[in-house]
Design goal:
Layout (H helix, E strand, L loop, with lengths): L1 E6 L5 H14 L4 E6 L5 H4 L4 H6 L7 H7 L14 H6 L2 E3 L2 E5 L13 H16 L3 E6 L8 H4 L4 E6 L3 H16 L5 E8 L2 H10 L5 E6 L2 H9 L14 H10 L1
Length: 252
């Protein structure tokens, strides 16, 4: 299962991503947890060691490795470097969980084939198309790490949306981008639901049949976030309804 998770900043996509990762590990399924958001807080939400997370370099900053994979420099760019060793050597491991940071891509239009972008593309392609582990990508709202090539490996785009006009606008934009990349399944997860009115607002604004589920607003998550504590270290930290969302995703 290869899942990308996107949504407006603050909508809770890192929390949802971390919860899904824990569902995989609780079911003893090896999974890559990939922080592809420049804010890079997925590792802390997962409850990984803060020092280890802080010392883990984003892949885009591995300049020596990037040069090596591109035959030592120069203007030539290898679009398909072998990166299996990168996935073995530059990830944090915690049981069935393997965590890595992508880092921000370079902007330059769809025809930009700079070494860093080519390297990140190769890493994503290997994880999504060549490896057996599950993958959960915590994306930025713009899903700019995905290309048409890597999108072939994404089996589902989950768009986390809170019941606000801004949240809805971002969700619709991600939906359009996902369709442009020909991602077959794009589902919504309503988050921070406080009332029946919140639920109705989202169901009236988005196709109800494309909701994987709704997650109630959690004071517990808010308080932990304020204290900088991990939000999901084990089964007891799973949000109500999250396991049903996980099961629905797996059935689809």
């Amino acid at each position: 299962m290869k899942i990308a998770v996107s949504g407006k900043g603050g909508a809770g996509k890192s929390t949802v991503s971390a919860q899904l990762v824990r569902c995989f590990t609780l079911n003893h399924t090896p999974v890559f947890a990939v922080d592809a958001d420049p804010d890079a807080n997925l590792g802390l939400v997962l409850g990984l060691d803060p020092d280890q997370v802080g010392n883990l370099r984003p892949l885009v900053e591995l300049q020596d490795i990037i040069e090596e994979k591109n035959f030592g420099g120069g203007t030539f760019v290898d679009l398909n470097p072998n990166v299996d060793d990168v996935l073995d050597n530059y990830t944090l491991r915690d049981g069935d969980l393997r965590f890595l940071k992508m880092g921000a891509i370079k902007q330059g239009g769809s025809a930009c084939y700079c070494k860093e972008n080519s390297f990140l593309n190769a890493v994503l392609t290997t994880m999504l198309l060549d490896r057996d582990e599950a993958v959960v990508l915590d994306m930025s709202a713009g899903i700019e790490h995905l290309t048409r090539g890597t999108a072939r490996g994404i089996k589902m785009m989950l768009v986390v949306v809170e019941p606000t006009r801004a949240g809805l606008s971002t969700a619709l934009a991600v939906d359009r981008l996902s369709k442009d990349l020909e991602i077959e399944q794009v589902l919504f997860v309503g988050n921070k639901i406080r009332s029946d009115e919140d639920r109705a607002y989202l169901e009236d604004s988005l196709p109800p049949e494309r909701f994987a589920g709704m997650i109630a607003f959690s004071e517990k998550v808010l308080e932990r976030a304020r204290r900088g504590e991990p939000l999901v270290s084990g089964k007891d930290d799973l949000l109500p309804g999250l396991e049903k969302i996980y099961e629905s995703i797996c059935r689809r």
